[in-house]
Amino acid sequence: MTFAGTRQEFVRRAMAAPYLEREEEHDLAVRWRDTADQSALHRLTAAHMRLVVAISARFRNFGLALGDLIQEGHVGLLEAAARFEPDRDVRFSTYATWWIRASIQDYILRNWSIVRGGTSSSQKALFFNLRRLRARLAQRPDQRPRSAVFAEIAAAIGVSVRDVEIMDSRLSGPDASLNAPLREGDDSDGSDRVDFLVDRVPLPDETVGERIDAERRHNWLRSALNVLNERERHIVRERRLQDEGATLEALGERLGISKERVRQIENRALEKLRAELLREHPDEGIFV
């Protein structure tokens, strides 16, 4: 028997499975919850596989195999069985519908494209409703611009117009490999799409060079600070070598002097530092 035949037989048996009465459903759910009765779980889930098939069929237009969707829906059905509270006045089919749909949608989002998208609840709603809303709005007699259609969709789902535009472009075309040639045919120059991507991150040798230069300048500064007296070093560290430098007024209050006097000491200390650095490293004036 072919795979298609096997799937058709599975669907046929799922649709032919007998329905459960409320009392029988409750009894099976209690047995599974309290004693982990595997036979009870099998009967409970087998009776609801038609629900899995029906929900899976609603998502077959996303380009994924129906058999895979049914399999993921079955995972959601088992999750629902594990979490179901039979003592609540809710039928298992009502509770399981949410878990089946969520499992199938998650599978589609993971496999529809190699680019991960639709991670938030609003993005998921946009992904699964955009085509339906777009088709419904296109049936209206008035010929409105795309911007107006996107604005109405954004308001209906609760996302930005920019999100709608991005999702629309993703749904309108397949993934494109960066390693695919830029042009097909004999006139191709052998360039791939990835060759035209701009990487603004510094090259490894530039990164290493900047790190070495930063360490060198740090050592120079630490050595040059020895020419300052204690108060000058304190003011330079508080004003220039902290993530958030202290204000002149705050330093003046701590040292018991005016903020103008702090400014004078700071300027004098910076001049002394500059002179010492130039004396020790005369060829590195660009760094001083």
Description:
This protein folds into 3 domains: 3-111, Four Helix Bundle (Hemerythrin (Met), subunit A) (Up-down Bundle), CATH 1.20.120; 121-172, no CATH class; 204-287, Arc Repressor Mutant, subunit A (Orthogonal Bundle), CATH 1.10.10.10. It is mainly α and 288 residues long. The chain is elongated. 65% of the residues lie in helices and 0% in strands. It starts with a helix and ends in an 8-residue tail after the last helix.
Mean pLDDT: 80
CATH architecture of the largest domain: Up-down Bundle
Number of helices in the DSSP assignment: 13
**Care to count the β-strands?**
0
Class per helix and strand makeup: mainly alpha
Distance between the termini: 81 Å
CATH class identity of the largest domain: Mainly Alpha
- What does the largest sheet look like? none
CATH topology of the largest domain: Four Helix Bundle (Hemerythrin (Met), subunit A)
Q: Report helical residue fraction.
A: 55-70%
Q: Low-confidence parts lasting 5 or more residues at pLDDT below 50?
A: none
Features:
288 residues; mainly alpha; Four Helix Bundle (Hemerythrin (Met), subunit A); 3 domains; elongated; 13 helices; Arc Repressor Mutant, subunit A; 65% helix
Give me a quick take on this structure:
This protein has helices at residues 3-16, 22-35, 38-46, 49-57, 66-83, 92-111, 121-138, 146-157, 161-172, 204-224, 230-240, 248-255, 259-280. By secondary structure, the chain is mostly helical. Helix 2 runs antiparallel to helix 3 and helix 7 (121-138) crosses helix 8.
